[in-house]
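During the no-cost extension, the postdoctoral fellow (Dr. R.K.) reprocessed legacy sequence entries with the updated structure-token encoder. One reprocessed record is reproduced below for audit purposes.
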Amino acid sequence: MRPRLTLAAMPATALRLALLYAAIFFVSGVQLPFGPVWLASRRLSAAEIGAVLAVGQWIKVAVNPLAGLMADRGRDQRRVMLVLSAATLAGFVLLLPARGFAMLLLLSAIAGASFSPLLPLSDAMTLAAAYAGRLDYGRVRLWGSLGFIGATLLAGRLLAGGDADVVLYLLIAGVLAILAGALLLPRAAPMARRPGHATWRNLLRPRFLAFLGTATAIQGSHGIYYAFGTLYWRSFGISDATIGLLWAEGVVAEIALFYWGAPFLRRFGPLGLLALGGGAGALRWTMTPLVAAVPLLALLQLLHALTFGAAHLGAMHYLARSIAPERTATAQAIYSATIGGIGPGFIMLGAGALYGAAGGMAYLSMAALAAIGAAAALILSATKS
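Re-encoded structure tokens follow.
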């Protein structure tokens, strides 16, 4: 019998994690598409917006591994997540009266530093439960994507013709939901220990570092889309409500990949899914600046199932299969810091200048980056561990 996509049908552990994912991605679903719109409303230039976003990415490099190390050593991931959620809430509240580039940069960095470790810690808990046979990672993770969709649709509708501060109000509401979700978590994360795995050595191997570079190139190729996708679509007259639908559509495609991803994983393997995501990215970002009609953009948005969904699923299972369980949270945090910090930090910094100079044609640089990632994934797949 086919499993149902309902919360009521889920076991308790999966249900709690699903609710937490939904809350975390509600925040992302507001922040990614509409955060730059809010920054623009505070009279920041494209280069300044790019700098704010870049610093938010770079700060993950230090914060995420530290949070992961704390969780791995103490095993009480719930407490770590509660502290991080409270700090994120304080950062967003303080942004309400903030003005000026320096203050917005500082407070955005504080909020980003607190928020960014929440997802890798959640992934570590979920993958541990998945490999203990308690749940299917993809079918729990997709509830995060549903939260993202709800956020983009709600924010797009509320923002249309309204005050840009609605973005911050929604972010604050989302973080309150994260706090509630973290309170429901067990005090210790489920750990599925497997013998025969190295610990820190696995995190320092050249092959693992090459994997990080590959995943960074593929996920980093979304940089222009994440930073300036909404502003770009606005520039040729697409409404905020329609933009919200376009963002949501991409995530619906991602959800489908997560729900039916197990056969793809068996067919292609983790690195094959990464290569598939990179190849789809090369196509998607090449075509994006060449089309302006909403129906054609909607077709391109379906590729998000591969450019993000397949690449993410492949990366998560690569980590689960190659890293010792007692280092799972640290490995997840290092992965998140790399693909969401080091690489995207430089990409976001350049994205502002690229978009300011070339507009939509800046997407072509992202197509090249995705192609490089696809080639690297194929090379890794063809070589022995």
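The first helix runs from residue 12 to 41. The chain has a mean pLDDT of 84. The remaining legacy entries will be reprocessed before the final report is submitted.
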